[in-house]
Amino acid sequence: MEESTTTQDPRRAGGRPAGPGGAVGGARAPGGVLDRTDLRLLAELVENGRLTNAALAARAGIAESTCSQRVRALRESGVVRRFTADVDPAALGLGIQAVVKVRLATHGRDHVLAFHAMVQRIPGVLTIFHVAGEDDYLLHVAVDTAAALRDLVLEHLNVHPTVRHTETQLVFEVLPGAGILPRA
After folding, report:
1. Can you say how many angstroms the Cα of residue 115 is from the centroid of all Cα atoms in its chain?
2. Residue-level pLDDT at 31
3. Beta carbons of 129 and 137 less than 8 angstroms apart
């Protein structure tokens, strides 16, 4: 049986009860503690984000309406940021992956924002990590040829006025980690 409280969520018209922690459906704000049902829903969605609401509810052992409310609350609170497909770059002919370390020459807000805008538009950039340390960014990129990797670095990154230095490391293999959710 699912936990519930009768605390009223002022954001909801009609006085519907809020779940534990004050959010409708049980989900909490980012950084808050999630209950076992929320964690179970997240684990199932991480495993297969295409589950129907009915299948997800059955796996979590809750009613479909409760499942729908909880997933909506997880999305609205920012716990679930988006649903997406995990596409293998090699299957699209992008068999060369690399991590490009980028060091900026200047760190003024306008320069950083200009770099963000530019790098987010470069075809082949999969993920951008803004990091602490000697380097400022790590870019995970996927391209079809060594020449395309060279061009990405030379024609997009090194010509940007804020970029002081780049270093490219080839990726031999991408392996999944343990993830952020405890194993059931």
Report:
1. 20
2. 60
3. yes
